[in-house]
Design goal:
single chain; 439 residues; Rossmann fold; formyl-coa transferase, domain 3; 2 domains; six-stranded parallel beta sheet; three-stranded antiparallel beta sheet; 21 helices; 13 strands; 38% helix; 13% strand; elongated
């Protein structure tokens, strides 16, 4: 037990040491546990707490002992690597001398971006000027000691730097190398530059969504970058699968995450409708705003049970036997008529009254809220959905991972790193030669 506990302590198994999840060893030459050792440690986590491993009631983290080399910028890649950090991995973010461009995105407080902070909390920031051959050599040494590498440059960039999977796997056969790009690493579109709004358009998602907006002829503007978050989440899932396979084979592999395919995964029904003939969409979409006396609510009448509940809430049980509405396909064809009749009731009641009646009859429904209003939801407070994160200019709230684990902590790191904050710690005294801009 003492041997296991000592090894786990050196690998930083538990969170809570220091302000940014731990005074973990530098990347070069650090001890690594193999995948089997953490299983034994996690199975004995309660006993380890008695040896001061996890301090208080802090649980171990599922990816503690894993080292991640993070060559990502903007949103998709940093979202993935922040989740890895949340799960306990030691994430070393490699930044150019000018830093990740998200450092300049508002909200800004004296130059410190909370948008950057929420995507990079819990990581270490190391500056390397990869235009400098010596810096590339340092990156290669870091990769030789890494479990996972994540990058989201345009395909070909890492190869030109000599930091592609083929080059690095020769020195580290266990390396899991994850690439996130717009269209994939190979193929006729691989070299096309891509950001989330472009992927929304090219995936068919925007026009699919427009089909549910009556009278609309122009696609929506984009302000919520779904493709980035989705691709980063799929990358996390692929990394988990590769880690499991590595337990069996002892070998890493390359992962190729496409934002285009990630977005297509959201169009489940539309993918099938594009292949087969289906009934036309109803004149009024089934899911959307329903008018009340003081605003709008959204309800999901997606089954016979919820249809019966909606009828009961409105005092219109006659709808259940009405030939226009009794069967799903007839109800779909006449949905606009049904909603007109429902709104004859809902417009005479406040939103809160409508929601209460629908809740009594087990109909999923909610008011439309702003993000600020949603953040104040008592349910989110109950789940501990948000955590305070510190950066150079103070505190802000960031969302914890939306999943909870009974034997592992899952929460965002306590600090967002300043640019190059950990360069000296990770690289040692020689770091000045490889961090300054070349030329």
């Amino acid at each position: 037990m003492f041997v296991i506990a000592a090894a786990a302590r050196r690998a930083g198994l538990c969170a809570g040491f220091g302000t940014d999840r731990g005074d973990w060893p530098g990347s070069i030459g650090a001890l690594h546990l193999n995948e089997r050792a953490p299983r034994a440690i996690l199975a004995n986590s309660k006993a380890l707490n008695g040896y001061g491993m996890c301090g208080g009631n802090e649980m171990p983290r599922a990816y503690s002992g894993l080292r991640v080399l993070d060559f990502t910028t903007t949103i998709a890649g940093p979202h993935c690597t922040r989740l890895l950090a949340d799960l306990g991995a030691d994430v070393i973010k490699i930044e150019a001398p000018e830093g990740d461009m998200m450092r300049s995105r508002p909200p800004l407080r004296n130059g410190a971006s909370t948008n950057f902070g929420q995507l990079n909390a819990g990581k270490k920031s190391v500056v390397l000027d990869l235009k400098n051959a010596a810096a590339v050599a340092v990156a290669r040494r870091l990769a030789a000691d890494a479990d996972i590498l994540v990058e989201n440059y345009r395909p070909g960039v890492m190869q030109r730097l000599g930091l592609d999977y083929a080059a690095l796997a020769n020195a580290n056969r266990r390396l899991i190398y994850c690439s996130i790009s717009g269209y994939g690493q190979t193929g006729p579109a691989a070299d096309i530059p891509a950001y989330a709004p472009v992927i929304h358009a090219s995936s068919g998602f925007d026009l699919a969504n427009m089909a549910y907006q009556p009278g609309r002829q122009r696609p929506d503007y984009c302000g919520v970058y779904v493709a980035d978050v989705l691709a980063g989440t799929y990358a996390l899932a692929a990394i988990g699968a590769a880690l499991h396979q590595r337990q069996v084979t002892g070998e890493g592999q390359q992962l190729d995450i496409s934002m285009l395919e990630s977005m297509l995964s959201l169009t489940l029904g539309e993918l099938q409708s594009a292949q087969f003939e289906v009934p036309p969409l109803p004149s009024r979409p089934i899911f959307g705003p329903v008018a009340t006396a003081d605003g709008y609510i959204c309800m999901a009448v997606a089954s016979e049970r919820t249809f019966y509940g909606m009828a009961a809430a409105a005092g219109r049980r006659d709808w259940i036997s009405d030939p226009r509405f009794a069967k799903y396909l007839d109800r779909r064809a006449n949905w606009g008529v049904l909603m007109d009749e429902f709104e004859a009731w809902s417009k005479t009641h406040a939103s809160a009254q409508c929601l209460a009646a629908l809740a009594r009859n087990s109909v999923p429904a909610a008011a439309y809220r702003s993000v600020r209003e949603a953040m104040a939801d008592p349910q989110l407070q109950h789940r501990g959905a948000f955590a305070d994160v510190a950066d150079a200019e103070g505190m802000f709230k960031a969302l914890n991972p939306p999943f909870r684990m009974s034997a592992s902590a899952t929460s965002v790191g306590k600090r967002a790193p300043a640019l190059g904050e950990h360069t000296g710690e990770v690289l040692g005294a020689s770091h000045r030669a490889v961090t300054k801009p070349s030329g």
